[in-house]
Structure formats: structure tokens, C-alpha cells
Automatic annotation (TrEMBL):
Protein name: PPIC-type PPIASE domain protein
Keywords: Isomerase, Rotamase, Signal
Domain PpiC, residue spans: 125-227
Stored Pfam families: Rotamase
GO terms for MF: peptidyl-prolyl cis-trans isomerase activity
Natural source organism: Segatella buccae ATCC 33574
Source domain of life: Bacteria
Signal peptide (from-to): 1-19
Length: 474
């Protein structure tokens, strides 16, 4: 009984000590936020090189807003969506899975790859170092061409029999230019690496022996066996095997194999094993814990923000129109704009035809009308630039509308330039004329309204004494 009581007391003391070392800096909707979590976020977002660095006091509001939005996402149960679970698990596993591979695991995998390769190579006759002289012959060569090539290769072979230097003849006569510069010598080969006709002859030779001429898919060859040996020693190819493991993602395959084996033994699943490993690692490593939490919360933040602000604002045409009507002064221009088109045609008659086709039609429909009327088949009758232009945006508009003395570079094949539209003196006609700006401002307005509602909905308590110790404790 005393032992059990002592154990509980020790555990409580340990918990109290940890709480003292990492006190709560704030609570959001009753959920505690430790000083270490706040420090991780603050330091990451205010590191060297960050342009708009914040003081701890300035960062508090940003951090609280972040936490409130994540809480809203949790209340909306966005963390239960299968798409969220899948994406989060994939990211989390990218952080955790590599920790399951040790240097010994990689060495064992490299040894396995070496043994498999060694058995395959040595079982097929080992490695050969060969040189060859090739006279290319097209597979569709005529009988006359075949006979001529055969005469040439026979003369090469006869010269070799009389003592001619193989490397010298290869350099001068071989059509395999990549090996000819090396006296015809090829890199070490193993079975099933080159064409069968070549390998069958090469593997039948003795060291130093020269083959009779033979025909392959490429033409006539004469081959010399320079050397023969078993597969390379492990230490000489270890670096290449390690590079192979990395390039083929075999580290991850090692993890998969291990998880499957352990799952069978423990009557569990690889996913459950990764869950347990994550808990183990994050209990020891705050940086990893907060990195994973940051991604978890970041996914939630993106989804809730998209639903509540970003996507909502972009699709809310009535809201955009109303916001623009209420804030027209924000979008006034210091200089006039031309709302219309600059276009280029092949024939003079199309200048007026273009104007007639879009006159009186909504500006947003002009592009479709012009495309279907003039460019709906393989022949493009016109070239068009549509938009809201200020001086300097378009040479044709500058010259024809703003009467600026500029040189207009002609469009090849479309020698006649023209414009159609209207000049807006100092303000847009409607929000569509400045849509990108209105959407951005409307999103900001929705964001502020949302944050205000969240601050009314959720209770936030800041521990100012703990906040004052951020980045100032041992």
C-alpha cells in the first residue's frame, strides 16, 4: 500500500515539475496552450529573414486568432472528414516512418541486394571485359550490302590473325564510335545486358581469345575477351548500392516490411503501430510534436477559412456587388481607363463587323461572342486583347484612344488595328471592372467579421506572467 502511494506521489511530482517547466501561457475555449507550443510558433514565424517580424505582444493576437479558427474547425468536425484524415496521416507518416529505419537496417538491405546480384551474375558466368570491332549493317540490307560487309569483316579478322593490333583496328575501323576511342573496349558486362548473339560468343571465349566474325542485330562483330571475373567485392560496390537504395525509395520499403512483420506478430495493424510510434516520438521531441500539430491544425485552418472566407467571398456575387457599392471611393483611379478591346483584322470590312457584333452586349460576353463569330473554325479572322487599360498597357489603345504618339508593332497577318469600348474617367462602372481588388477586400472584411464572432463565442484567457517569460527562461 505504501509502495503504491509512493509511486502515485512520484508521478504527481513529475507531472508538477513538467507543468512548472512548461506552464500554460493561455487557454482557448478551455483548452490549455503551453509556453513551449507558443514559443515554437512564435520563433518559427519570426526567425531571421522574416520581413515583418513581430514582438511577442504583437504576435499574441495573431496566435489567438489562429487558435480560434482551428477550434471552429474542430467544432465543425472537419477533422472527421476522410479527406482530412488521409492527407494528415500521409504527412505525419512522412515525419515518422524514416525514424523506423536504422543504419543497420540499410546495411542489411544493401547486403541482401549484393547477395542477390552476386548470385545472378556469378550464376550466369560472371563478369566479362570485352573489346569488339563492329561493322554496322542495316537489318534491311540487300544481299549485295551483306556480302560487302562480310568481306570487310573477314579482312579485319584475317589481319588480326596475322598479328594486327586489335585496339588500333578498332579505333580506325569500328562503327561503334563510343567504344572505338577506347580501342573497342566495353565496360564490364553480365548476362542479359547486351544482345544474345554477342553474349553467346563472348561467354564462350577464353581470356585473350578473339572470336571469328559473327552477325548480330547491329551488324558484324569480332570480339576479344580481355578479362573475366566473379562479381565485384562488396566494399567496392557498397557506395553504389546505397545510392541505389536512396534513389529507388527502398528505405520506405524497409519500413513497410518491418511494419507488416511486427503487425503480424502483435496481431495489430501497421497504422496502429505508426500511431504508437508517433506518440512515443512526440513525447520525447517537442519540435516534432509541434511540427505535426502545426500541419494538423494548418489543414483544418485552410479548410475552415476556405469555407468561411476565401471561396465564399469569391463566389458571393451579390455580396461583392454590395461591398463595392458601399466602398466605391476605395476604387477610384487617378487617371482614366479604357474599358474595351484592341483588335487586329485581315480585312477592313471586319473592323465594323467586330463593333456590330458586340455593340450593346454585356462586356463580360464580348470574348465569347467574338470567338464564336470570327474564330469558330480553323481560320482565325481576328486577334483581340480585351481588358481595362491605362496608358502604357497597350500600344494600340495608347495611340487610338489616349492619343499618345507611339509606334505600334504590326501583328503578322493582321495588318489593320482598331479599338472599341469606352473611356472611364476616374472610377469603374461596377465591381467586375476591379473584381480582383474587391474580392481581396471583401475577403478581409469577412475575415474580420469572422474573428470578431469567434472572440465572442470562445473564451480566451492570457496568463500575462507566463507570457512575460517567453524566450526568457532556462
Amino acid at each position: 500500500m505504501k509502495t503504491a502511494t509512493l509511486l502515485v506521489a512520484m508521478l504527481l511530482c513529475g507531472s508538477m515539475a513538467y507543468a512548472q517547466n512548461d506552464p500554460v501561457v493561455m487557454t482557448v475555449n478551455g483548452a490549455p496552450v503551453s509556453r513551449s507550443e507558443f514559443e515554437y510558433s512564435y520563433n518559427k514565424n519570426n526567425s531571421e529573414g522574416v520581413i515583418d517580424k513581430k514582438t511577442v505582444g504583437e504576435y499574441v493576437d495573431l496566435f489567438v486568432n489562429y487558435k480560434l479558427k482551428v477550434q471552429a474547425a474542430l467544432d465543425a468536425r472537419l477533422d472527421t472528414m476522410s479527406s482530412f484524415k488521409k492527407e494528415f496521416r500521409e504527412y505525419r507518416d512522412q515525419q515518422v516512418r524514416p525514424t523506423l529505419v536504422t543504419d543497420a537496417d540499410v546495411e542489411a538491405k544493401a547486403r541482401d541486394i549484393y547477395r542477390e546480384t552476386q548470385q545472378r551474375v556469378d550464376g550466369g558466368g560472371g563478369l566479362l571485359k570485352t573489346s569488339h570491332i563492329l561493322l554496322l549493317l542495316d537489318q534491311n540490307a540487300t544481299k549485295t550490302q551483306q556480302n560487302a560487309a562480310k568481306v570487310r569483316i573477314d579482312s579485319v579478322y584475317n589481319a588480326l590473325k596475322k598479328g594486327a593490333d586489335f585496339a588500333d583496328l578498332a579505333r580506325r575501323l569500328s562503327d561503334d564510335k563510343s567504344s572505338a576511342v577506347n580501342g573497342g573496349q566495353l565496360p564490364w558486362i553480365e548476362r542479359n545486358q547486351l544482345v544474345k548473339a554477342y553474349e553467346d560468343v563472348a561467354y564462350a571465349l577464353k581470356k585473350g581469345e578473339i572470336s571469328k566474325p559473327f552477325l548480330s542485330e547491329y551488324g558484324y562483330h569480332v570480339v576479344k575477351l580481355d578479362d573475366k571475373q566473379p562479381f565485384f567485392p562488396y566494399d567496392s560496390v557498397k557506395t553504389s548500392i546505397y545510392q541505389f537504395i536512396e534513389s529507388r525509395g527502398l528505405r520506405d520499403a524497409i519500413v513497410t516490411d518491418r511494419l507488416q512483420e511486427e503487425a503480424k506478430v502483435g496481431n495489430t495493424t501497421p497504422e496502429q503501430l505508426l500511431d504508437a510510434k508517433t506518440e512515443e516520438l512526440t513525447a520525447k521531441d517537442d519540435a516534432l510534436k509541434y511540427l505535426i500539430k502545426e500541419y494538423h491544425d494548418g489543414l483544418l485552418l485552410y479548410e475552415i477559412s476556405n469555407r468561411t472566407v476565401w471561396d465564399k467571398a469569391a463566389k458571393d456575387e451579390a455580396g461583392l456587388s454590395a461591398y463595392f457599392a458601399k466602398n466605391k471611393k476605395k476604387y477610384r483611379w487617378e487617371e482614366p481607363r479604357f474599358k474595351g478591346i484592341a483588335y487586329h483584322v485581315k480585312t477592313a470590312s471586319d473592323v465594323d463587323a467586330v463593333k456590330r457584333s458586340i455593340k450593346g452586349k454585356p462586356f463580360a460576353e464580348w470574348a465569347d461572342i467574338l470567338r464564336t463569330t470570327f474564330n469558330n473554325d480553323s481560320v482565325l479572322r481576328i486577334r483581340v486583347e480585351k481588358g481595362i487599360f491605362k496608358k502604357g498597357d497597350n500600344a494600340v489603345v495608347d495611340k487610338e484612344v489616349f492619343k499618345v504618339p507611339v509606334t505600334v508593332k504590326p501583328v503578322e497577318g493582321y495588318p489593320i488595328d482598331a479599338t472599341f469600348g469606352k473611356v472611364l474617367k476616374n472610377k469603374p462602372e461596377d465591381y467586375q471592372d476591379v473584381r480582383a481588388l474587391v474580392v481581396a477586400d471583401y475577403q478581409d472584411a469577412l475575415e474580420k467579421q469572422w474573428v470578431e464572432s469567434l472572440r465572442k463565442k470562445y473564451t480566451v484567457v492570457i496568463n500575462k506572467e507566463v507570457l512575460a517569460t517567453v524566450n526568457k527562461h532556462q
